[in-house]
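ok trying again, last paste got cut off:
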Amino acid sequence: MALDILILYGSYRRGRLGIRLVDYLLHGFAELGHRAELIDAKEIGLPMLDLRHSDYPPGQAPAAMSALAQRLSAADAFVFVAGEYNRGVQPGLKNLVDHYLKEFDRRPAAIASYSAGRFAGVNSHADWTVTLSAMGMTVIPERLSVGQIGDALDEAGRPQGDGGAALDRGFPKFADTLIWWTRAAQAAR
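nice, full thing came through this time. structure:
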């Protein structure tokens, strides 16, 4: 049975390179027969966090926030595409995630990190592991990290060069582990 996987992305920068990794993941999960959909923080445009979705009285949260809450609750699993900004997390993705809590609780998550440099977003990956775990998510142990993303993926998200080859080698185990944890979570529910 096909899984419903949401890929969350939070860059607001011009010329966003991480969208290449999003495209790669969308294609990769589709090839495996699963439904993958992008949740783009920039496109949704939630305000800086003041009240979480659950803080609003029923029916009074902004429409975009409520629609996303429903979509998050319906998903089977999540992939966080985590760029690294100044050795930390992207503020756009963090702001998007912070509007919700119960929608993520006891749900499987994977982190695909990236950076323009050669360290592939390892600091962001570490920060997100702590954050998502604290939110009650099961974060899979497999890492999918892309350094020098502008060289590893072309504009259409197709792998190229050594970095692209490494991504292609790592994706199958990353996807298999997320799928396994998602099936386990479904069985527990």
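cool. The CA atoms of residues 84 and 121 lie 5 Å apart. The first strand starts at residue 4 and ends at 9.
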